[in-house]
Design a protein that fits this description.
This protein is α/β, with parallel strands linked by helices. The protein has one domain: Rossmann fold, CATH 3.40.50.1820. It is built from eight helices and seven strands, in the order ββααβααβαβαβαβα. α4 packs across α5. The radius of gyration is 16 Å and the shape is globular.
Length: 219
């Protein structure tokens, strides 16, 4: 499966070993969440080191991001090719299905990321998510989420931040997943605030909480 990645430098890195922030739905994060402006300001202030943005976009995101094993493996290979297998300081950022896809890639290839920032992840399960009954890939997503919650796939804990709006329907799914990952040894930060399943809410949460995760992983 083909993976589309566009790389953008944030600040001037002294060598090729600068860390990477891998962003699913990267174009939307840049356009709708002002991600580059946020990161440039943090680098200019000395809060974050210079780094690379790997902006990932999927032609068919409903298929690629819905716990697709083919896409997860292709993404990991593409990132290894990009970074020369220097996985040590790669952090993943994604919202909704993008958050699900990042966690799925991490669980399949446990060393693919050193940190995860998951926003309103689509961690759907059949009994609790009847609103998604018409989603063609719900069964695949449900099987993966159950595997994670039951810790059936051998976790490799990494620092993980989960953000979710109190007012959105999948708050319970995100809270349950955060609890399960914490029980498996993940250093978890779970942040909930008023908002919706939308870009303004994700932008505010990224501004408030992404710098702390990046500082922790990239220090």
């Amino acid at each position: 499966m083909e993976v589309s990645i566009r790389v953008q430098a944030v600040g001037v890195a002294p060598n090729g070993r600068a860390p990477y922030l891998v962003v699913l739905d990267g174009s939307d994060y840049v356009r709708r969440a002002s991600l580059v402006r946020l990161l440039v300001g943090l680098v200019d202030a000395g809060t974050l080191p210079p780094h690379h943005l790997a902006l990932v976009d999927a032609e068919d995101r409903l298929e690629a991001y819905s716990a697709s094993t083919a896409y997860a493996r292709a993404l990991t290979v593409a990132l290894d090719d990009l970074t020369g297998r220097r996985r040590g300081r790669r952090v993943g950022l994604g919202a909704s299905l993008g958050g699900l896809a990042l966690l799925h890639a991490h669980r399949l290839e446990p060393r693919s990321f050193s940190g995860l920032f998951l926003q309103s992840g689509s961690f759907c399960r059949r009994p609790t998510d009847r609103r998604e009954a018409g989603f063609a890939r719900l069964g695949r997503v449900d099987r993966f989420v159950r595997t994670v919650v039951r810790s059936l796939d051998g976790a490799r804990p990494v620092p993980t931040t989960i953000t979710c709006a109190l007012d959105e329907e999948n708050y319970a799914d995100n809270a349950a997943l955060a609890h399960a990952l914490a029980a498996q040894g993940y250093p978890i930060d779970f942040h909930a605030a008023r908002g919706k399943h939308d870009w303004p809410t994700w932008r505010r949460a990224a501004e408030a909480h992404l710098p702390a995760l990046l500082q922790r992983v990239w220090r």
